[in-house]
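Rotation project, supervised by the postdoc (A.L.). Task for the rotation student: set up a whole-complex structure prediction and record inputs and outputs verbatim in this book. Inputs entered:
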Amino acid sequence: MVAFYGTDLCSRLMLGTSQYPSPKALEAAFVRSGAGVATVSLRREAAGDGTGQGFWQLIRDLGVPVLPNTAGCHSVKEAVTTAHMAREMFGTDWIKLEVVGHADTLQPDPFGLVEAAGILCADGFKVFPYTTEDGILAGRLLEAGCEVLMPWGAPIGTGLGLNNIYGLRTLRAQFPDVPMVIDAGLGVPSQAAQAMEMGFDAVLLNTAVAKAGDPAKMAEAFARALEAGRLAYEADPMEPRDMAHPSTPVLGLAVLS
Amino acid sequence: MKLTVNGTAQQIVACDLAAALVELGYGPDARVATAINETFVPAGQRARHALSDGDRLEILAPRQGG
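Outputs recorded:
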């Protein structure tokens, strides 16, 4: 069991709801993986459209907590206003805070992120900041009131996996008691397992599942990888060593030459 | 008065936000969140929120997200 802001989740997999080939495929991915959280967003709605209501009904029927995001926001003002609109719309004070610093890389703007996090935490939000592996930035976010960090694996939608293993390992070691979610950049389940083996608490992904040939099967694969990786972390893996070391006893070896 | 609604110019006669939503075709049960001039306006305050000519209105609804 894993908990964020005092809420127990049934799975360490947080799954996005975008880019699926159909609503049915989205639903199947959640059912088959048992994902513990669904991420959602807000976008413009035309009168009489009804798209938003239909989507919301689908998500409610999944029966999992929702984590609204501020995706696409480039300024503190945009992110804060979007967060307030999301809190009313989705009835949750959880917010995945994204303040995009660059349109091509989608890299977080560290300065805007800290400022927005401070405003939202003071307003009673439970902020999940999408950040980098930068430990100084992480410290500032914690000082701003965040109790969870969401460092990126790699830039959003790239599928490159854990781009900076050293940086992520350092971040994990620097704040051993802070719940951390690897958010974005994963492409295949082995990368999620690796994140778990390193001691991260959960993984948030979307594109790797939604763009797979069989999203439901890939979602299950990620869920199993997360379980395996977490189990391995709890089992305390051996330390790697440079030199070979026989696993079969040398003592008692017959002399046959 | 003239408003910009979700980026498009619209002419309305309503004087407050709640009435404007109805006039624009959003039913009373429409699941939307609103902002005027980049500031959030809670649903409970829409009827008291007077509109001004040139206001920018954003009307948002749940969507897929990652």
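Student's summary: Residues 49 and 61 of chain B are 20 Å apart (CA to CA).
Supervisor addendum: The first strand of chain B starts at residue 2 and ends at 5.
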